[in-house]
Amino acid sequence: MESIIEVQDVTKSFKGATVLRQINISFEKGKIHGIIGRNGSGKTVLIKTICGLIHPDQGKVIVDGKVIGKDVDFPESIGAIIEAPGFLPSVSAFRNLSYLASLRGRIGRDEIRAAISFVGLDPDDKKAVGKYSLGMKQRLGLAQAIMEDPDILLLDEPMNGLDNSGVSEMRNYLLQLREKGKTILLISHSIEDINTLCDTVHEMDHGVLTEKEHISSECLDHNLKN
Hints:
The protein has helices at 43-51, 93-102, 109-118, 134-146, 164-179, 191-197, 217-225, and strands at residues 3-14, 17-28, 32-36, 58-63, 66-67, 78-81, 152-156, 183-187, 200-205, 208-212. It is built from 7 helices and 10 strands. The radius of gyration is 17 Å and the shape is globular. It has 2 domains: 3-77 and 151-225, Rossmann fold, CATH 3.40.50; 86-149, no CATH class. It is an alpha/beta fold. The strands form 2 sheets. Strands 6-7-8-3-9-10 form a 6-stranded mixed sheet. The chain has a 4-stranded antiparallel sheet with strand order 2-1-4-5, with helices on one face.
């Protein structure tokens, strides 16, 4: 098993409240790893720590062999949807992604257009993103996450705002990305998402992360309500 992400003894507290408690987990390359748990259990803090946006009080995160915050400030090949994607509301999807891409200068027009097309949007559409539905913004968020062809995707509730057809298409996109060898960490409240997409499932409860063999709908409902 080749691990691309290793979280070692990670603990994080905010104002005296411990949010992550000695997390030890490895995520295997080329798989979709599901993370479930009630709101406030520490799921989003964990992926922000993996991204390098939050630094642990103890322990370390290693991504592709490099210690985050020591060898590199941020992982070199990562894309993310964390909370609601934020875009400039007055310009088009293409212009939004072009601006974001210019910050690192790694890709050009062709890669941006391909990412927008991949998620079912039109790269030539001039509509301002402020007029997009929530589902369209989620699609654009995925396009932003994948446009630089990262090895790792961290996705926090990417199905939010999508109708049934959109959810089915998003699942298909994620399975295609796995087929391309991408490693995906998926936070979801949907038992169907977890059972349809994920190779492994982990439950976060009061800052403690444990791997689960199987998640039933009754178990998931309990985890989210308590």
